[in-house]
Write a structure and sequence with these properties.
single chain
Length: about 130
C-alpha cells in the first residue's frame, strides 16, 4: 500500500506519514518497495508486531510522569506520586505489548469501521 493511499483513506498528511514510516522502517516493522506495485509492507509477520512496538518505534509513547521517567520531577528529586504514574505507564505498556497487530486488525470493531470507511468512500465515488 502506498503512503498516498493511506493518507487519502485515513485523512493523515502525507508528510507526517513519511516521518512515521521512516521510523517504522528503521525499526524493521515495515519495508519499502520501489517501482510498480511498490509501497510499504510489513517487515515481519503481523502476529510478531505488538502495538507497543509500533508506538515506541514512532516515539509517540505516552509517559505519565511529569519528569518523563527521569525521577527529577520535584526540585531534582522524585515527587510523591512518581511511583503511581510510573506504574500506570508500565501497565499501559504491558497491555499494549500484549496486543499484536494481527489481533488488532481482526478485532470486530476495527473490521466494522474499515467496512464503513470503504462503503463511504465508494458512495462518494458514485456520487461524483
Amino acid at each position: 500500500m502506498t503512503l498516498a493511499d493511506i493518507s487519502e483513506n485515513q485523512g493523515i498528511s502525507l508528510s507526517y506519514l513519511e516521518q512515521l514510516f521512516a521510523s517504522l522502517r528503521s525499526k524493521g516493522l515495515v519495508r519499502g518497495v520501489r517501482g510498480p506495485g511498490g509501497g510499504y509492507f510489513l517487515g515481519r509477520s503481523a502476529d510478531e508486531i505488538s502495538i507497543a512496538n509500533i508506538i515506541c518505534a514512532v516515539d509517540e509513547w505516552v509517559e505519565f510522569t511529569r519528569c518523563r521517567g527521569q525521577e527529577n520531577c520535584s526540585g531534582g528529586h522524585r515527587c510523591l506520586t512518581h511511583s503511581l504514574w510510573n506504574s500506570l505507564s508500565k501497565q499501559i505498556y504491558e497491555f499494549l505489548e500484549g496486543i499484536t497487530l494481527e489481533e488488532l486488525i481482526q478485532n470486530a470493531d476495527v473490521l466494522d469501521i474499515d467496512g464503513q470507511q470503504k462503503r463511504e468512500k465508494e458512495e462518494l465515488k458514485l456520487a461524483s
